[in-house]
Amino acid sequence: MYFSIRSIKQANKEAGQHFFDASTMRFFNSRVCRKVIGSYFVTSEQFDATTPRRYTLRRVDDRGWIATIGEFQAFATSRAAYQEAARLWAAECLEIQMDERADAGRWEAYTADLCV
């Protein structure tokens, strides 16, 4: 999990990736929104001066690699993109909690068998 765009940029660079290189950002006329939700962040891209700026949801993995979540430029607003990021992060957290509870249940059953 990352807590800032700065840490995501550093991890991406250390992984030998070029997502945040100035030339890449210029090519896509891309901007990076500041907020990070878990491993999710948002970028905006604009094809040219006659098209609207649209927003893309991104996810960074533990290696610093960036993936597009859903469709490129899927969102008309950053707010909509961040709402999806929050929904996905909450689902991931819930899944982790459920896995931990299942593991705890299996451990309790295992140790109960040992004590018989």
Can you offer a commentary on this structure?
- It is a single chain.
- By secondary structure, the protein is α+β, with helices and mostly antiparallel strands.
- The chain has helices at 5-14, 22-27, 78-114, and strands at residues 30-32, 40-45, 54-60, 66-69.
- The chain is built from three helices and four strands.
- Strands 1-2-3-4 form a four-stranded antiparallel β-sheet.
- The longest helix is centred in the last third of the chain and has 37 residues, at 78-114.
Distinctive features:
116 residues; alpha+beta; four-stranded antiparallel β-sheet; disordered C terminus
Describe this structure in a few short sentences:
The protein has 116 residues and is of the alpha+beta class. The chain has helices spanning 5-14, 22-27, 78-114, and strands at 30-32, 40-45, 54-60, 66-69.
Q: Total strand count, please?
A: 4
Distance between the termini: 42 Å
Strand content: 15-25%
Number of helices: 3
* Average pLDDT number: 87
Low-pLDDT parts are 110-116
What's the structural domain tally?
1
The value of Rg in angstroms is 19 Å
Write the layout of secondary structure elements.
Layout: H1 5-14, H2 22-27, E1 30-32, E2 40-45, E3 54-60, E4 66-69, H3 78-114
Antiparallel strand pairs: 1-2, 2-3, 3-4
